[in-house]
Amino acid sequence: MRTRKATGAGRTAALLVSPTLLVLTIVVIYPTLMALNESLYGPKGLDPKTGFISSTEPFVGLRNYTGILTQAGDRFWNAFWNTTFFTVVTVSLETVIGVAMALIMHRAFRGRAVVRASILVPWAIPTAISGLLWKWIFNADGIANVLLGHQVLWTADGFPAKLAVVIADVWKTAPFIGLLVLAGLQVIPKEVYEAARIDGAGALARFRHITLPLVKPALLVAVLFRCLDALRMFDLPYILIGAQKGSVETLSMLAQNEASNVRFGPAAAYAVILFLYVFLIALAFVRLLGADLIGDGGAKGRREARSRQRKPAAAPRRAEVMA
Length: 323
What we know:
Radius of gyration: 27 Å
Number of helices: 15
Strand content: under 5%
Largest sheet: none
CATH architecture: Orthogonal Bundle
Oligomer: single chain
Structural class: mainly alpha
CATH superfamily: MetI-like
Shape: flat
Helix content: over 70%
Number of domains: 1
Low-confidence stretches: 311-323
């Protein structure tokens, strides 16, 4: 009887999970395998055996990957550094600003609904539109230079271009972290803060010892999503600064550049390398912080507290008994 129930439960679980697995296969697994296969072929060109243009892509094995690391090594490592730089800087700034936004939106004050709506406007704007808006702001005669009082070539190649991309990306996506952290703040019981105030804990102590630990799972999920999104950054620097600008060129832009020049094999190789980079970052993130991502840290603490309560109290010391 128990075996039949287990078999029925297993079939029900497989039936419920099958749509998700089907979508993942179509959207993720199949394109990844196709990109991996395409990366093993070179572009169409002159066939040395016949002297004619080849109508098929020749099989080159791992030559596309070795070419990326040797012939295009400087450009690849520059794009790799830019991708990592944008991820670290933007996600760090967005985390700080997003937490501040969440704390502001969580407070009870008049006009809170208007503040919440206005803070979420940048996140609602499409990235392409956001890139165009910031391109007008960072033009030579734009409002950024007017406010600064001197001319800065924001959309040219160099460090100002990096700074422009960072500012635009933080402005757009910091509300995303703020929204997820706000959701975590709203499930914290008010009694916890009231008890801390009665015990004399100040605002900073309440933030460090109550807010951060309890909102940590939601915050880590937001940071993980933003890291994965920033590693694939393409549209914002492409629209705001332009293509083939060394200071802002990312791995996604390299893949697009190869594909636009009908070099699909090298483009697929860049895409596979970027996929592996994103996958390793996500795997390391989940491995190191997996318990906090699903909120097991608090459950573990509650289990330990209950186990301590079940233990019998220690016998009083002889001196205390005699007293």
